Amino acid sequence: MNTTRAAWVFITPALIVLGLFFLLPVVAALVLSVTDYDLYALADIRNLRFVALENYWTLLQRPLFWSALGHTVYFVVVGVPLSLGASLGAAMLLNSPLARFKPFFRTALFAPVVTTVVAVAVIWRYLFNTKYGLVNYTLDSIGMPTVDWLGDPHWAMPTIILFAVWKNFGYNMIIFMAGLQAIPGDLYEAARIDGASAWAQFRHITLPMLKPTMVMVGILTVSGYFQLFAEPYVMTEGGPLQSTTSVLYLMYEEGFKWWNLGSASAVAFILFVIMFVVTAAMLRLSKRGEPA
Amino acid sequence: MRVARLALVAALVLASAGLASCAKEDSGTRTLEFWTIGREGEAVQKLLPEFEREHPGLHVSVQQLPLTAAHQKLLTAYAGDSTPDITQLGNTWIPEMVALGALEPLDARVHASKVVDKGDYFPAIWSTNVIDGTLYGVPWYVDTRLLFYRKDMLAKLGYDHPPKDWAEWQAMMAKLSQPKGKAFGVLLPTNEFEQLLALALQQPEPLLRDDGRYGNFQSAGFKKALAFYVSLFKEQQAPMMTNVGIGNPWAAFGQGFYAFYLSGPWNIGEFRKRLPPGQQGDWSTTPLPGPTGPGASNAGGSSLVIYRASKHKDDAWALIEFLSRPAIQERFYQILGDMPPRRSSWAAPALRDDDKAIAFRDQLERVKATPPVAEWERIVTEMQLVAAQAAHGDLTIDQAAAEIDRRADRLLEKRRWMLDHGHKATP
């Protein structure tokens, strides 16, 4: 009896904070998403109409929503494997006994994670400038055709992906390094004695031993990448031709640029459902059998 | 126990903060919160010491908002009850703020004013501040789009004058766009709606119909403007570029990458600064050519508005009157190049004798206001997105016009409901 009471007392502050700053906003957003809360409702609440699921319905009929979803999925499907690959590769290089200046490289590769997006985006915009950028200059000097990286609708998203991968891979690299260091060295020793090649060692020791790390990192990265926002916001403002407008960017524009909080909340819930389904499926898959 | 003590401490802190702010009010200095958007904030700070000298005990605190964040900030400030006393407001945003009921009507103050004289302002610019017969802002500076052009490049083709109408303009651009894809007639950044909007405003038909209930983009006039706009891209007379993609439009203009640039007054200063002295005689400005003879352009610019929630409305009005004086507007032009909305300010030598500014004076008599509905900004944004698709060749002119109408009608749905149910869209 007394212990139960004590337990409640202990968790009450946490519950209050969670309820106030998490549960309440979520419920409020859910309520908002079935109304047409907009500028007029902001002026006078009597202008608010209950619209049931109309926000969701209109959204599903809007080509921009589908293209935003398409861009987001494109970003996730290409970006996540690239990001994980880059992180794992960098982690293995740094973990190799042959590597020199490890602390330096670890810091250098982690640096993009802790720098502000806005600051590095400015640099990247210079690098990828069509006429004066270093990237096009290099392409030009080796005789390759130059590309309008941020201005061409086909190239803007790949550029954003490159930027995001570069910006984020350091974080996962650190986690992978911790995972790699936890793999006992005698496994590799035994494999070498049996004559296993480097690839076979990677395939049959490193990957299986890294599986728990991989699952966690994969799920975190997928849910992070679904929330693509800052990169297009600072690099392209969703353009050109809305080719880098992500779901979250669409929500931001609906909600804070045009103040259509009703439909912005609907966007948020649809994204939530999608992310929930995808990450749940990933968790399911990882429990069932071999990791990818 | 602990929670109670915390609450007590919090209450004490709040109370003392409240006391402190009261104390500040009583000591005689009043602070006027003034928000500015873009570069105006820096320039206006050079004028304010004089205002503060004239009004002892009044301090103006200027907060500069970047243009890209200003719209959100103004709406969020209203939602959070933290609006300033006075703000600069793009005149196309006034209908939105009026729909919110955030702004103070200014008719009575203007009537009583010796400084702000309605008849002295360019009428179309003034009219952007009048919503349903009530005045909500005083124009601060004007912004309209016209043509910057390379005199020397036209001279080489045998033209001793800038284009007067679309036909002549297009003939010039066809000759200038050689070799194809390397040189262009005109720069129309595909992410800016102002260029197409200016061409559309030259047409007789209004852009919205039935008191702003529906879009009117399938009118013959708009289709004509859209077809002209799209043809410039189709025939490679305008590069398919955003203003991000072009990088440095001033250098490209100097290098002859394009000979016409449809842009606004701030670029006079930019071109003076960025082009080498030897090239300064090579460029000029001219009013925007219309379908037949000199055409209209948009009545853009910023106004000064007072928030209804302000506690210092008289002081805010004093600041508006100060900034509306022709002498002050002349200095403002000299600092920043923002063009004054009053005819008498244009009589000042700095403007009258400026060969690049004269074209704007002429254009300002022929500007047109956009429809005063709160949704306008969204409609015109959608218009440009669809127009860019048409320029890309994804849509025909008819398809694009129908699509813009469809999107405009969807955006205006709430406005229609408000008007039809007796809710006032503009309180």
Describe this structure in words.
The complex is a heterodimer of chains A (292) and B (427). Chain A is mainly alpha-helical and 292 residues long. Chain A folds into 2 domains: 1-51, no CATH class; 62-288, MetI-like fold (Orthogonal Bundle), CATH 1.10.3720.10. Chain A has 13 helices and no strands. Chain A has helices spanning 2-32, 39-43, 54-61, 63-95, 102-114, 117-127, 134-141, 153-181, 185-193, 198-226, 230-235, 247-257, 261-288. Chain A is globular, with a radius of gyration of 24 Å. The mean pLDDT of chain A is 90. With 427 residues, chain B is an alpha/beta fold. Chain B has 2 domains: 29-143 and 299-354, D-Maltodextrin-Binding Protein, domain 2; 146-297 and 371-420, D-Maltodextrin-Binding Protein, domain 2 (3-Layer(aba) Sandwich). Chain B is built from 19 helices and 17 strands. In chain B, the strands form 6 sheets. In chain B, strands 2-1-3-16-6 form a 5-stranded mixed beta sheet. Chain B has a 4-stranded mixed beta sheet with strand order 8-11-7-12. In chain B, helix 10 (220-234) packs across helix 17. The radius of gyration of chain B is 24 Å and the shape is globular. The N and C termini of chain B lie far apart (50 Å). Chains A and B meet through helix 2 of A and helix 3, helix 17 and helix 19 of B.
Largest sheet of chain A: none
Number of discrete domains of chain A: 2
- Give the terminus-to-terminus CA distance of chain B: 50 Å
Instruction: Tell me the CATH architecture of the largest domain in chain B.
Output: 3-Layer(aba) Sandwich
Which fold name corresponds to the CATH topology of the largest domain in chain B? Answer: D-Maltodextrin-Binding Protein, domain 2
